[in-house]
């Protein structure tokens, strides 16, 4: 059980360490570095969606024969739909964007930025929770090493994410302590989502293939709707592509070698 608690907290630790950079980095991350890091995060999430979520979901449905793809397709669609709905309802502001999205609100820019990151951290937390719930159930398609590969991969992409949230806030006038706190808050939703999912394990396990693909759909929505457009804006979008390729390969290697 201790290993599971540690595994759930690893992604949050990645965010916290990235946010801590606000205390020793003087300025915002250079625009080209931001592009590379956003692309890297997108690559991690896409690879995790395929190797850690969709492929296990399809393998678990092997008894359905040629129709084994059905749970994955259904779960994926519902994952996309949920985050789309949240994206339309929850007020938030994307990095380097001047106009907030979602329902109208009077929140400050810093709060809206944190809410944007929090929004796409929810599916990551759910993915971790679903995988560990499956592990606790004894599902043969999920191993402890594979579960940790997923959490480590998410933690790696959370590290630059924490810095990308905190540093602009410091540059905008917030104190280092306040900027660090907001970075922490943006990531705390991940372990909370994971713990809630595990607490619902008795409900989760019977529909595990659907939930694994659900988490994959939610993560892919975040990649296509948020990360890649932000990384591709302006000049030098090839940096984003290189970052994506590296992130994808890192997560693929982690999952295959550890799983």
Could you characterize what this model shows?
- By secondary structure, the protein is mainly α.
- It is built from 9 helices and no strands.
- Helix 2 packs antiparallel against helix 5 and helix 2 (31-60) packs parallel to helix 9 (238-258).
- The longest helix has 30 residues, at 31-60.
- The relative contact order is 0.25.
**Total helical segments:** 9
The structure class reads mainly alpha
**pLDDT averaged residue by residue:** 83
Strand element count = 0
Strand content: under 5%
Rg over CA atoms, rounded to whole Å, is 18 Å
Question: Approximately how much helix is present in the residues?
Answer: over 70%
Domain module tally: 1
Q: Characterize the biggest β-sheet.
A: none
What coarse outline follows from CA principal-axis ratios?
globular
Distance between the termini: 19 Å
Q: Topology of this protein?
A:
Blueprint: H1 2-19, H2 31-60, H3 69-89, H4 109-136, H5 144-171, H6 176-199, H7 201-204, H8 208-232, H9 238-258
Helix pairs in contact: 1-4, 1-5, 1-6, 2-5, 2-8, 2-9, 3-8, 4-5, 4-6, 4-8, 5-6, 5-9
């Amino acid at each position: 059980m201790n290993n599971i608690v540690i595994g759930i907290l690893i992604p949050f630790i990645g965010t916290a360490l990235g946010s801590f950079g606000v205390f020793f980095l003087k300025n915002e991350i250079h625009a080209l570095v931001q592009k590379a890091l956003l692309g890297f995060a997108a690559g991690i999430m896409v690879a995790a969606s395929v190797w850690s979520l969709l492929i296990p979901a399809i393998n678990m449905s092997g008894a359905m024969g040629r129709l084994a793809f059905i749970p994955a397709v259904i779960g994926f669609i519902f994952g996309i739909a949920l985050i789309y709905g949240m994206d339309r309802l929850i007020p938030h502001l994307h990095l380097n964007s001047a106009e907030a999205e979602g329902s109208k609100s009077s929140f400050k820019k810093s709060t809206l930025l944190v809410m944007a990151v929090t929004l796409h951290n929810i599916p990551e937390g759910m993915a971790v929770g679903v995988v560990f719930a499956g592990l606790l159930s004894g599902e043969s398609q999920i191993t402890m090493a594979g579960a940790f590969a997923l959490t480590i991969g998410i933690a790696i992409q959370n590290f630059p994410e924490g810095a990308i949230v905190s540093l602009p806030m410091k540059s905008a006038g917030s104190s280092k302590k306040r900027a660090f706190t907001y970075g922490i808050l943006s990531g705390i939703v991940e372990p909370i989502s994971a713990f809630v999912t595990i607490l619902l394990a008795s409900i989760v396990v019977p529909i595990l293939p659907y939930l694994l693909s659900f988490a994959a759909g939610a993560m892919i929505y975040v990649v296509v709707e948020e990360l890649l457009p932000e990384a591709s804006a302006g000049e030098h979008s090839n940096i984003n592509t290189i970052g994506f390729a590296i992130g994808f390969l890192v997560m693929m290697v982690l999952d295959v070698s550890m799983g």
